[in-house]
């Protein structure tokens, strides 16, 4: 690992805005956040993947991956970050290096690729991503980008986050560092207003930012730049003139918020667009900080009026589902979206939360879950797929809300499932998004396909059901033919008896 990359990683781990890191001893902090992998466990993305995820939603930029083609294939467009304009970000660019480049170096090929992109697409900037192979053979992407910027008169930004540097979260932050080092503060916005804010760590997945934007528009608040969902290069370059930064709860790019505070004196706060109460708190915080920064005071009162009207409208729309959803039980296994943020809206729709995961929750999150759900709240620290399967199969839950990785557990148990993590297809942001979430739960639970798939399959000519054939086999001693017995008990492959 090059000395400059090592120094950058050490700097990122010394993040004052990360409570978890600050709580660690000096020695522990040096070890970084990488967990020891256990065999069979999913490892998640690499640092390159993290940087690409964090920056790819900048829509008008060409994202060029310097490495073997598989790296680009690994990370290309695997989320649903939406754009309101340019679609260049969805074109996969890679130098696709081969064996000869590994022997002779890939820098010339990289330079030629940058030239080709600029000639063909003329983007406002090109982002160049380092990967494991090109870092190991010693390609100096910083030097090539500098030379290309001078030659073509366009920003060519090196993103030095090769896969082996660490996990995906580190890559998110290294992507943020590239913006801090080469983009933010390099241009002036055309004009500024006392109502300018940046939103950091929001990726506009399935268009969620567009559920919040009308609310801000109604208050006259301008999103000077969003880093990085539906982002534009020039907006991010001029983002240092914002009055307030909002850090979206995921903290994936907290380093941008803290360093912009140090460099440009922009205060930041952490907020969330998920859940009705949280959305209102976020609007209040933005208004409060803008007034502190010099915006007219009537903003506070206008914000309260908007919140009252929007909350009333959202609760009324959610209450309409109560009759259909009353008493239905939800198992909530989430990672990215804070569990307790959505619980209140689900309860208002008459749903019962039978369990919620707290794997990524902080101590305060857990307290909050207890407050909302009572002392007997079923908090699940780390549920194995087998436990999820049993819970769903025994009908202790009517639907599971989780990320894509657990979807097959629910489908094997023939139970409805809804994706609420990063690959989700529906936007669940702001007030509108909570109504959408309840609507999607209703659609999933009442989908007629579940009645169909739960009917036992006919077996044999006389119409005897498969379950009737299985019953005597299932009664045999467990030690005898364990495989056959598992089948007879209706268990699916991969789920032991
Ligand atoms: S770990 Fe290295 S080789 Fe694999 S995808 Fe990431 S950058 Fe590419």
From TrEMBL:
It comes from the Bacteria. Signal peptide: none annotated. Keywords: Nitrogen fixation. Pathway: Cofactor biosynthesis; Fe-Mo cofactor biosynthesis. InterPro entries: Nase/OxRdtase_comp1, Nase_comp1_CS, NifE, NifE-like. The keyword DNA-binding does not apply. The keyword Transmembrane helix does not apply. Pfam families: Oxidored_nitro. Residues 46-445 form the Nitrogenase/oxidoreductase component domain. This protein may play a role in the biosynthesis of the prosthetic group of nitrogenase (FeMo cofactor). Belongs to the NifD/NifK/NifE/NifN family. This is Nitrogenase iron-molybdenum cofactor biosynthesis protein NifE. It comes from Paraburkholderia kururiensis.
């Amino acid at each position: 690992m090059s000395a400059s990359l090592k120094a950058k990683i050490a700097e990122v781990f010394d993040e004052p805005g990360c409570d978890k890191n600050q709580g660690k001893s000096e020695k522990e902090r040096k070890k970084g956040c990488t967990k020891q992998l256990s065999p069979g466990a999913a490892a998640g993305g690499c640092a390159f993947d993290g940087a690409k995820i964090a920056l790819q939603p900048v829509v008008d930029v060409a994202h060029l991956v310097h490495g073997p083609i598989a790296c680009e294939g690994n990370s290309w467009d695997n989320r649903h970050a939406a754009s309101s304009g340019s679609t260049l970000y969805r074109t996969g660019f890679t130098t696709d290096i081969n064996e000869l480049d590994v022997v002779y170096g890939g820098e010339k090929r990289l330079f030629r690729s940058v030239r080709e992109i600029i000639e063909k697409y003329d983007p406002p900037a090109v982002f160049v991503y380092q990967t494991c192979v090109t870092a190991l053979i010693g390609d100096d992407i910083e030097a090539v980008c500098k030379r290309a910027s001078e030659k073509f008169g366009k920003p060519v930004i090196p993103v030095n986050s090769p896969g082996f540097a660490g996990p995906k979260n580190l890559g998110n932050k290294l992507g943020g560092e590239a913006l801090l080092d080469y983009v933010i503060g390099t241009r002036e916005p055309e004009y500024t207003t006392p109502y300018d804010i940046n939103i950091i760590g929001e990726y506009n997945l399935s268009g969620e930012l567009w559920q919040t934007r009308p609310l801000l528009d109604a208050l006259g608040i301008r999103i000077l730049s969003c880093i990085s969902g539906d982002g534009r290069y020039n907006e991010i370059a001029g983002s240092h003139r914002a009055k307030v930064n909002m850090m979206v709860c995921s903290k994936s790019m907290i380093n941008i918020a803290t360093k912009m505070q140090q460099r440009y004196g922009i205060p930041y706060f952490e907020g969330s667009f998920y859940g009705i109460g949280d959305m209102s708190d976020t609007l209040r915080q933005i208004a409060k900080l803008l007034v502190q920064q010099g915006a007219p005071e009537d903003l506070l009162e206008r914000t309260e009026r908007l919140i009252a009207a929007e909350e009333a409208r959202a609760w009324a729309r959610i209450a309409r589902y109560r009759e259909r959803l009353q008493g239905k039980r939800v198992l909530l296994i989430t990672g990215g979206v804070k569990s307790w943020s959505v619980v209140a809206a689900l309860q208002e729709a008459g749903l019962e939360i039978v369990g919620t995961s707290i794997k990524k929750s902080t101590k305060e999150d857990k307290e909050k879950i207890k407050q909302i759900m009572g002392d007997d709240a079923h908090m699940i620290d780390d549920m194995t797929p087998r436990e999820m399967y049993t819970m769903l199969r025994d009908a202790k839950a009517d639907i599971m809300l989780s990320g894509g990785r657990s979807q097959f557990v629910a489908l094997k148990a023939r139970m409805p499932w809804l994706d609420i993590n990063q690959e989700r297809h529906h936007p669940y942001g702001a007030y509108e998004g909570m109504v959408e979430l309840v609507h999607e739960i209703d659609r999933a639970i009442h989908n007629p396909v579940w009645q169909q798939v739960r009917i036992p399959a006919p077996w044999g000519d006389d119409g005897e059901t498969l379950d009737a054939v299985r019953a005597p086999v299932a009664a045999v001693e467990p030690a005898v033919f364990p495989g056959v017995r598992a089948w007879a008990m209706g268990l699916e492959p991969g789920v032991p008896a």
